[in-house]
Amino acid sequence: MPAQILDGKAVAAAIRLEFAATIEARGLAPKLVAVLVGDNPASHTYVRAKRKACVDAGFISDLIQLPNTITTEELLAVVDGLNRDPETHGILVQLPLPKQIDETAIIHAVTPLKDVDCFHPENIGLLAAGHPRYSPCTPRGVVELVRRHGISWSGANVVVLGRSNIVGKPLALMLMQKTTIENPDGGDATVTVAHTKTRDLAAVCRGADILVAAAGQPRCITASMVKPGAVVVDVGTTVIDGKLSGDVHADVAAVAGWLSPVPGGVGPMTITMLLANTLTAATLLKRAPRA
């Protein structure tokens, strides 16, 4: 029997309807400003999708497009202006940036309250301590995607394949923590982080009740690496011959109990969690004292 589908499109659509109802009840439309530098086609595609999601959910969306030749100092000035703008609730600086830009300096320059990507060290520190202000968008999308299909993380043996700062590390932090009112994204799971240096990677993956593939290596997870009936979440996004490919090989569908597709799985959830963080930011900034 083929794996059941973890349908990110359907879950994302349902959550965005919840956002729209919240915005209407509060009478506050959160504003997300995207900063797009250069002409990277993938970045343009991502930003376009994020802006459309904003509009569909009743958010205000703005875009600042900057030339590929901009300097770090010039980009810092743009970020500073958005930090000071009381009408801006969330700032999204689309990565990657051109090589001449100090990417770390830009990430650190976004004020933590408007860091809806959750890349700033202050927000990562709060996450690590179990007191998150925001959760990183893709990891939070993974957590919600699985939960909204009635699957519990609690007590599960979870293998996260990949140790990036954007997905692997924060997801592992979230899943190992207690689920509390303050930290609803805590998973109460037993978590193993696997990577390129992991010995007998196939055996480690086969031990997972829930396997999250975030290695960035297309089709690297094969059927022989998956426990029968396991939940498999594919975070991979690699373009091959003009088509998006995940980290999970097609033959896994015959073994897994649940499987997220690429596209249509984690991708829509990532964008939706960006909106969730922006909605939270609007609430926090409304409460924050004016300087």
Could you characterize the architecture of this molecule?
By secondary structure, the chain is an alpha/beta fold. It folds into two domains: 27-115, Leucine Dehydrogenase, chain A, domain 1 (Rossmann fold), CATH 3.40.50.10860; 136-267, NAD(P)-binding Rossmann-like Domain (Rossmann fold). It has nine helices and eleven strands. The chain has a six-stranded parallel sheet with strand order 1-11-8-7-5-6. A three-stranded parallel sheet has the order 3-2-4, sandwiched between helices. Strands 9-10 form a two-stranded antiparallel ribbon. The longest helix is centred in the C-terminal third of the chain and has 22 residues, at 266-287. The protein is globular and about 50 Å long. The N and C termini lie far apart (60 Å). The mean pLDDT is 94.
CATH superfamily of the largest domain: NAD(P)-binding Rossmann-like Domain
Question: What percentage of residues falls in helices of 4 or more residues?
Answer: 25-40%
Report the C-alpha radius of gyration, rounded: 19 Å
Chain-averaged pLDDT: 94
Strand order of the largest sheet: 1-11-8-7-5-6
Give the count of helical stretches: 9
The biggest beta sheet reads: 6 strands, parallel
What is the string of helix and strand elements? Answer: EHEHEHEHHHEHEHEEEEEH
Number of β-strand runs: 11
- Distance from first to last alpha carbon: 60 Å
Question: Which properties best describe this structure?
Answer:
single chain; globular; 291 residues; 11 strands; 2 domains; six-stranded parallel beta sheet; 16% strand; three-stranded parallel beta sheet; Rossmann fold; alpha/beta
